């Protein structure tokens, strides 16, 4: 039922497909979702895989270690806010 509704509604908003873009349409990060078995988030059990897509290469999903601080970073220079201590990289340690 859902897919026919989406296709019908999308046909009225074709011009909306041109909205957005930028780097977000080329570089994506997915944490993996929809496990076949509840609460089992192992890679083989996920409908949508985890990983990174770089430069729009959807045929090549790069593995990402979600616990490695050198792989997942947030930079203040690429955000909407400022950080008073002068650092551009925010490091968050796990509890």
From TrEMBL:
Under which name does UniProt file this protein? Answer: Uptake hydrogenase large subunit
Q: Please report the organism this UniProt entry assigns to the protein.
A: Salmonella enterica subsp. enterica serovar Poona
- Known role: This enzyme recycles the H(2) produced by nitrogenase to increase the production of ATP and to protect nitrogenase against inhibition or damage by O(2) under carbon- or phosphate-limited conditions.
Complexes and interactors: Heterodimer of a large and a small subunit.
GO MF annotation list: nickel cation binding
- Pfam families (alphabetical): NiFeSe_Hases (PF00374)
């Amino acid at each position: 039922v859902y897919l026919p509704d989406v296709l019908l509604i999308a046909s009225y908003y074709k011009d909306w497909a041109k909205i957005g873009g930028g780097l977000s349409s080329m570089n994506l990060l997915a944490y993996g979702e929809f496990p076949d078995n509840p609460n089992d988030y192992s890679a083989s059990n996920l409908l949508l895989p985890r990983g990174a897509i770089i430069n729009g290469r959807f045929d090549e999903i790069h593995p990402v270690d979600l616990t490695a601080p050198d792989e997942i970073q947030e930079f203040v220079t690429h955000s909407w806010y400022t950080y008073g201590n002068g650092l551009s990289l925010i490091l968050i340690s796990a509890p």
